[in-house]
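Researcher: I'm preparing a figure for a lab meeting and need a structural model of a single chain. I don't have an experimental structure, so a prediction will have to do for now. The sequence is pasted below. Please return the structure as tokens so I can convert it later.
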Amino acid sequence: GENVICMDSHILLSPGSFDVVPEGEHLYQGPMRSSLNKFYTHWVPNWGKNMWGVWGPTVSTLPKEPFEIWAIGAGFLCFRRDAWLGFNPKFRGFGGETGYIQEKYRKHGRKVFCDPTKIWTHLFKQHDEYLNPISDIIRNYVIGFKEIGLPLEGISLAFGKSAVDSVLKTI
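Model: Understood. Here is the structure written out token by token.
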């Protein structure tokens, strides 16, 4: 097809999520439903919970049109097939993609949008810890940040300088 989605196995999409297809070379994500009538529409670029990004405040009313955001959790992304920039092929395991992939789009002169028609829901509590090695998350962030030219200081502050130095010796 002309349009592609990347979606975690623990995500449900609301009916109508593809009534409006992605346009241009941009990356689209949807708001995450946090309760029956509350939604998260974006992340703030701070480190928290082993990820680069924390949830912004919830809203009760969604805008009618897509709007530009920094990022939102990468459990659901969509784009035109010919616009996909790809994850770094050296990534492995879980983590390191959120923030990185959105910044990669911006570095290529593209935009990241929250499309209010693409509502998604987690099938587990949003604060549960992932059962994945922290070493994969750190490794992926270091690889991704180096690829797109971001400083590694934020990763060092979030995970420790020695963890980042260990990764740098192996990549």
